[in-house]
Amino acid sequence: MDPQLQTMIDNMPEKTGKSLSDWIRFIGDRKLEKHGDIMKLLKTEHGVTHGFANTITLLYREQLNDEVPTDESMVDGMYAGPKAGLKSIYDAILAGVSEFGKDLEISPKKTYVSLRRSKQFAIVKPSTKTRIDLGLNLKGDAPAGRLEVDKVFSGMCSHCVRLTAADDVDEELLGWLRRAFDRA
After folding, report:
1. Which residues are bridge partners to 133 per DSSP?
2. Per the count of CB atoms within 10 A, which of 10, 45, 51, 157 is most buried?
3. What is the DSSP string of 100-142?
4. How many beta carbons lie within 10 A of that of residue 16, not counting itself?
5. What is the pLDDT of residue 1?
6. What is the distance between the terminal CA atoms of the chain, rounded to a whole angstrom?
7. Residues 44-92: pLDDT tens digits?
8. 49 phi, psi to nearest 5 deg
9. Per-domain residue ranges of the chain
10. DSSP one-letter code for 22
C-alpha cells in the first residue's frame, strides 16, 4: 500500500472520528454506491474533510469490487498456513484487551495488528511460525524477565514480549497491556 495512503488510514480515527473499517460498515449499512452520494453523506452530514471523504469513498467502492481487504481477511491472512497455530495466542490477547474499554481500537495492517486508544499502545505480530511478538509502549519502564527492550518494531514500541503459547497471555502480560492502554 502507498505509504501516504497508509498514513491517511492510520490518522482517520483521530481526524474523522471513525476508523476506515467503521466508515466502510457505516456506508455499507446505508447501501450507498455512487461516489457523489457517499461524498455528500460524509462531508455534509458528518463534517469529514474533502480529502478524507474522497479516500474513504474510493476505498469503499474498491471494496465493493473485492479490491480492498477487510480487517477480518487481513487477520485471517496473517494466521493462515504455517502460522495458523498462532491464532489462539492472538485470540487470547484480544480476549484480554477487550475488557479495557469502549475506546479500544483494533486496527489490522498487512503484517501486524495495532492496538490503539488515543494512540497506539501495542502491536501484535506473528513474527515466525512459532512466535508472536507483542510490542508494548511502556516508555520509562525497566525491562524485566519476559519484558524486553524492543528490537523488533523499529521504534514503534518501547518493549517486546515473545509469545509461543496461549498460556503466555497471563495476568502479568495483561497487566503490561493494561498499563500501556492506560497511558495511551
Report:
1. 125, 162
2. 157
3. S-TT-EEEE-SS-EEEESSSEEEEEEE-SSS-EEEEE--TTPP
4. 21
5. 57
6. 26
7. 999 999 999 989 998 888 887 665 567 787 888 899 999 999 999 999 9
8. -65, 160
9. 3-64, 81-183
10. H
DSSP codes of every residue in 34-48: -HHHHHHIIIIIH--
Q: Considering only CA atoms, which of 35, 8, 33, 13 is closest in space to residue 23?
A: 13
Q: Which residue has the cell 500500500?
A: 1
| Coil vs helix vs strand at 21 | helix
Q: Considering the entire predicted model, what is its pTM?
A: 0.65
Q: At what angle do helices 20-29 and 3-16 cross, to 10 degrees?
A: 70
Residue 96 pairs with which residues in a beta bridge?
A: none
Which cell numbers in the block locate residue 108? 489490522
Instruction: List, in sequence order, every residue forming a beta bridge with 162; answer none if it has no partner.
Output: 133
Give residues with Cβ within 8 angstroms of 181, minimum separation 6: 97, 100, 101, 104, 115, 117, 121, 122
45 is written with which cell numbers? Answer: 452530514
Q: How far is Cα 91 from Cα 81, in angstroms, rounded to an integer?
A: 17
The C-alpha cell of 136 is what? 508494548
